[in-house]
Amino acid sequence: MSLPVLISDALAIQPLAAGIFLVDKPVGHSSFWVVKQVRKALGIKKVGHAGTLDPFASGLLVVCAGRAATRIISQFMAGEKEYEAVLKLGVETDTFDTEGKVVATHPVPAFDLQQVEECLRGFVGEQLQTPPSFSALKHKGKPLYYYARRGLPVVKEPRKVVIRELSCLDVVKDVVTIRVTCGKGTYIRSLAADIGVALETGACLIGLRRLRSGVFSVRDAIDGALLSDPKVGRPLLMANFMDVETALLRL
């Protein structure tokens, strides 16, 4: 079976080596949806991604295509992540985000940006964080959401995570926008819920955008919404291909 080809500006034809693509995942699609579009566009079975984004989230997804790239996905997952997150104060859900069932509501006092900033300072550094019951983290070989959806939520032991930077960008009534720079394994949904506890109002995540993953920025990513267009997806990917060697040199 022949490999997909890359046609250069000089019209030279050469095999498409294993490599990575930076994709800006649109809201409303899963990370696996992006993987499927890349598989279909390039005709490559071995495709994966370096860090899941929930369907309600958007932003940078590092997609690895080809065996040589998928074998080293863990290296692309190891770097810091940067996010912009939007929290709804006064509402707690079972998933810690807007897609879950509301389990409690609370009155919300009039916070200003300085008050929220003071609260956020307590989360900077090494923290113990409990993963959400609705997550892909495995328990006895199955993701936690498998048990939670069956009414058997599993509470995992708190894990060490690192929040390097945390700032408040905006406060509008009961909606707070923050920017987070964190290490591997940090759940922004759990962080949102913990901030709600610290503010004594409860909170859930209503918006999330990944701005950076390691050295890779969403500013350099292609629009994932275009990948499903058969006339656009393949040429767009071909024009934004990064081989494994180049990607590793940037780490």
Which characteristics define this entry?
single chain; 251 residues; alpha+beta; Alpha-Beta Plaits; Pseudouridine synthase; 2 domains; two-stranded antiparallel ribbon; 8 helices; disordered N terminus
Structure in words:
Strand 14 (203-213) and strand 15 form a beta hairpin. The protein has two domains: 5-78 and 215-250, Alpha-Beta Plaits; 81-213, 2-Layer Sandwich (Pseudouridine synthase), CATH 3.30.2350. The chain is built from eight helices and 17 strands. The strands form four sheets. Strands 3, 4, 5, 6, 9, 12, 13, 14, 15, 16 and 17 form an eleven-stranded mixed sheet that branches. A two-stranded antiparallel ribbon has the order 1-2. The chain has 251 residues and is of the alpha+beta class. The radius of gyration is 20 Å and the shape is globular. It has helices spanning 31-42, 67-70, 73-77, 113-120, 144-148, 188-198, 233-239, 244-250, and strands spanning 5-7, 13-15, 19-25, 47-49, 58-65, 81-89, 91-93, 102-105, 125-129, 138-139, 142-143, 159-172, 175-182, 203-213, 216-217, 222-223, 242-243. 24% of the residues lie in helices and 35% in strands. Mean pLDDT is 91; it is low at 1-15.
TL;DR of this structure?
The chain has 251 residues and is of the alpha+beta class. It contains 8 helices and 17 strands.
Number of strands: 17
Total number of helical segments? 8
Q: How large is the share of residues in beta strands?
A: 35-45%
The CATH topology of the largest domain = Pseudouridine synthase
User: What is the CA-based Rg, rounded?
Assistant: 20 Å
CATH superfamily of the largest domain: Pseudouridine synthase
Net shape: globular
Which structural class matches the secondary elements?
alpha+beta
